[in-house]
Design goal:
Number of strands: 11
Radius of gyration: 20 Å
Number of domains: 2
Strand content: 5-15%
Shape: globular
Oligomer: single chain
CATH topology of the largest domain: TIM Barrel
CATH superfamily of the largest domain: Aldolase class I
Largest sheet: 8 strands, parallel, barrel
CATH architecture of the largest domain: Alpha-Beta Barrel
Length: 332
Amino acid sequence: MLKIGNIELPEFPLLLAPMEDVSDPPFRALCKEQGADVVYTEFISSEGLIRNAAKSTKKLDIYTKERPVGIQIFGSNLESMLGAVDIVERTNPDIIDINYGCPVKKVVCKGAGAGILKDIPLMVSLTKEIVERTKLPVTVKTRLGWDEKTIKIVEVAERLQDVGIKAISIHGRTRAQMYKGFADWTKITEIKNNPRMHIPVFGNGDVNTPEKAKEIRDEYGLDGAMIGRASIGNPWFFDQVKHYLKTGEKKQEPTIAERAEMAIRHLKMAVEWKGEILGVLETRRHYGNYFKGIANFKDTKSRILNEKNPETIIKELEGVKKTFSEAVFIKL
């Protein structure tokens, strides 16, 4: 039985990655329904939390049906990070995760996210202080290194474990790569094969097919997969991966009508949580994948993407359900 602290997980768990404007409560709930074992919030600025910024505090919303759920924070200032930990603890998540992997310039330039990979001693000392501040299990999400010349991830993972983290998720690219090229899972395997490592090591990056998930389990020996972009507009991905790992067979894709119904549920939940404007706006990024590969769908998709009234979008999606009630989704 795999554990993060005292949290028991199944063999080779699937984790929903923290993604800005994506892994909010509505989407986390849908992914949980479809088999995600652990879900993480969008990443939350420690500076925003200690200043009670509305956008940051809203991201602290978690619900019983999501558990186990981790709240992810980022920052580089010790006092701010510790203050954020105190605030996060009061919301009673199952896990506190530290983001040491975000490659976005506005985060990196402040020495946070992947920016801290240029200062490993700070990364370790900051983690140590956070672990000592909370009774919750602390996990870390990071990258291989700042660039190809500075990859020390085996040493880094060991040092983070030694100061008390309970699991580590590693995106198999450097910050310099951003999201280009391919994830290098061999580097992550070196961490897993380090005889001193005893915490779970999860792989992240390019886990976009059930076959890839099986590969990082069977060929690279990792403890689980953290799934990000492959799940956007496709919460079924978790169920598909689990089915494939169990049976060796690909599960039939959801029908177009089932996809439309999921999109309707998603939009309704988003509007209820965020209000009409943000609910409509932030759900748009999912429609491309919800309806990817449908022939002659361009005009319908355009109407859905450009409409601001949620009721009108729902009527459009209900029309899709009716039109394609018998059609099977074909992945192109």
